[in-house]
Amino acid sequence: MKEAEAATKKLQAEAAISEAKARGPLREELIRLSYADPEDVARTLQGILGIPPSGAPIQQIPIITAIPQNPTTVPSSGLPPNRC
After folding, report:
1. Is 9 among the domain residues?
2. Are 56 and 46 a contacting pair, CB within 8 Å?
3. What is the reported pLDDT for 29?
4. Domain count, the chain
5. Measuring CA to CA, how many Å separate 71 from each of 50, 51, 64, 67, 77?
6. Structural domain harbouring 7
7. 45 phi and psi, to 5 degrees?
8. Per the confidence metrics, is the pTM higher than 0.90?
9. Average pLDDT, the chain
10. What are phi and psi of 69, to 5 degrees?
């Protein structure tokens, strides 16, 4: 049993290594915003997020105008539940 688990872990580790090699080296890309024009940054972020220039519309919550029905009365025999 332990041999099978060890073999499975070894295969998983080898698969992870080969996948990492296939992807290539990791790259980190940095967006420098400290000296950027705030309006340019806003337009860029709006484009990335898909927000129109006028801004995202506010979704209004519908008001429920229905009046609930009267509660249903269940006749009781005076005994506790589950007793016949």
Report:
1. yes
2. no
3. 64
4. 1
5. 47, 46, 19, 12, 19
6. 1-25
7. -65, -35
8. no
9. 77
10. -75, 165
